[in-house]
Design a protein that fits this description.
153 residues
Length: 153
């Protein structure tokens, strides 16, 4: 039984394998670096160190400098991060199902569902309260870390 790569000339096969190996290695290294960065950030959040204080200071600065225009902008940005992402996720799934691209459909569904499940699990692990402001524009429920916007982007 021969694979599709066996149909290619040997020089092309070597070229493709080299590139697949190089790119796979680079992606793996990038993932490892990002995991280390996330681990450092998570450790700071878990230990309630200086990062939490900085987080509150940033929230206070946004609150002090807010205007109706910035309030509107961040309200729309927040809604896009929740409702907009859900609409795009469902539209992507419908498109893939319509094209009968079942492998891509299931990869899409696992990535979206798995990302959301991982986000909820990590929020329960870290139980990081949201920064507090006197008069919030939007009241967000649940924990703040990790960010659902960042996780799903």
């Amino acid at each position: 039984m021969t694979g599709i790569l066996d149909l290619l000339p040997p020089a092309w096969r070597a070229f493709l394998w080299r590139h697949i190996f190089v790119w796979s290695t680079l992606y793996l290294l990038l993932i490892l670096v990002l995991l280390v960065i996330f681990g450092q950030l998570a450790a700071e959040i878990r230990e309630q160190e200086s990062l939490v204080t900085i987080d509150q200071q940033i929230a206070d600065q946004f609150y002090r400098s807010s205007t109706p225009l910035t309030d509107q902008f961040f309200s729309v940005f927040t809604l896009l991060g929740s409702g907009g992402v859900v609409i795009l996720a469902v539209a992507g799934a419908v498109y893939l199902a319509w094209r009968r691209a079942w492998v891509h459909f299931w990869l899409w569904a696992i990535a979206i569902g798995g990302g959301e499940a991982l986000n909820l699990l990590l929020k329960d692990v870290f139980t990081r309260a949201r920064p507090v402001v006197d008069v919030p524009i939007l009241v967000a429920t649940g924990y703040s870390f990790p960010s659902g916007h960042a996780m799903m982007s």
